[in-house]
Every structure is written in structure tokens, then in C-alpha cells.
Amino acid sequence: DERFDYLVEQYRPASIVPAFLEATDIAGLIRGASAGEGLGNAFLSRIRATDGIMHVCRAFDDEEIVHVDNSIDPVRDLETIHEELLLKDIEFVEKRVEVLRTAVEKGIDKTKKAELEIAETVLQFLTETRKPIRCGTWKNVEIEFLNDLQLITAKPAVYLVNMSEKDYIRQKNKYLKKVMDWVKETTGEPVIPFSASFE
Predict the structure, then answer these.
(1) Degrees (nearest 5) of the Cα angle 72, 42, 146?
(2) What is the pTM of this model?
(3) Bridge partners of 161?
(4) pLDDT tens-digit series, residues 126-152
(5) How far apart are CA 112 and CA 181, in angstroms?
């Protein structure tokens, strides 16, 4: 990358480590993926292996590109993905709670009582707020526990809104405001409009 070479030449750092981004394209989840519908479990395990999530949502009409629901509604699509990822994390934490509860109640490992309390707090947050783990306010001891769990909804996320070339150039799109409002209300994370066809 010429820009990287220029910066290295200008600043002459002690070490030179180019940044890289490995992107894994995971097709859109369908409703029921958390319960194994479609290729749900395979997709969800691939998402669990990532460091972050870029949600690319379709915000353009094109009859030649068929949508699984036969209509374009990026907010509906984001809600589906949000719910499926949340359900998978809830299922994972419920299993952890059961394992910890058994260990504590049967006296197998009483030191797990604090972990059980944290796991129950995490589960309560997920089920009551219906928000991703990354949107919660957590104490240091809870963060350590969450880091061990590697929950999907703990991963940082950004929302990419794929618009038509025409909409991107004129900076107007009938879906963009709805997506931005939903993201603001749900997670408050960055939303980046772009056009794959223009790029």
C-alpha cells in the first residue's frame, strides 16, 4: 500500500507492522437459525470465531436479486439477525448456568458460587433487556467472566448499509434513516452507508 509506505518513510518507526483485516462473508441468517434452521448452527459457529461483526444490510431494490423474504426491509433483516445472535448467546449462558449450579449445589466446587451469580446476572441482562452483551455496563470481575465465554453479542459491531449507486451518489435512501434509527435505539453503534455497485 503506497499510503503505508509513505507513512513509514515519513515517520521511520522502530518496527513496521502493516494492519490487516480478514473478512469472512457469512450469508444472512434466517429466522430460526439459533435453533438450527437452514445452515444456522454452522453460520453461528463461524461468527463466534470472529473478532468483530460487520452487519451488511441491503437497502436497495433490485428484482434480479431475490431476497429470502421476498421483500426489502433492512430493519426486519437486522432484527432477525439481532434476535438470532441473542438467542444463541442465551442458550449458551443457560447451559453455563446449569453446569455451575450443579457444581455448587452438589458441593463439587463451591468456589464456583461467584461465577454462578455472574452467569445469572448475564442471563438476566440478555433475557430482560434483549440487548447485546456489549451494550451492558459490567464490573471488572464480570468482564473477565464474559471474556471467557466469548459470546457472539459481546463482539464489537458496525452496520454497513448497502445502497444503490444512484442513492449513494445523491446521498438519499428510503431505508437509511430507518436503519440508523433502529441501530441508535438498539445498540448505538456506527452506521456506514456505502454502495457495493459503486465501489
Answers:
(1) 95
(2) 0.80
(3) 57, 193
(4) 999 999 999 999 999 999 999 999 999
(5) 41
How is residue 122 written as a grid cell?
A: 448475564
Write down how long the chain is. 199
Task: Report the 10 Å Cβ neighbour count for 32.
Answer: 13
| 3-state SS record for the chain | CHHHHHHHHHHCCCCCCCCCCCCCCCCCCCCCHHHCCCCHHHHHHHHHCCCCEEEEEECCCCCCCCCCCCCCCHHHHHHHHHHHHHHHHHHHHHHHHHHHHHHHHCCCCHHHHHHHHHHHHHHHHHHHHCCCHHHCCCCHHHHHHHHHHCCHHHCCEEEEEECCHHHHHHCCCCCHHHHHHHHHHHCCCCEEEECCCCC
Q: State how far Cα 19 lies from the chain centre.
A: 22
Is residue 24 scored above 80 in pLDDT? no
Residue 117 reports pLDDT greater than 90: yes
Which residue's entry shows cell 450443579? 102
Task: Note the pLDDT of residue 153.
Answer: 95
Between CA 126 and CA 136 the distance in angstroms is 9
Lowest mean pLDDT across 35-39, 74-78, 81-85, 95-99: 35-39
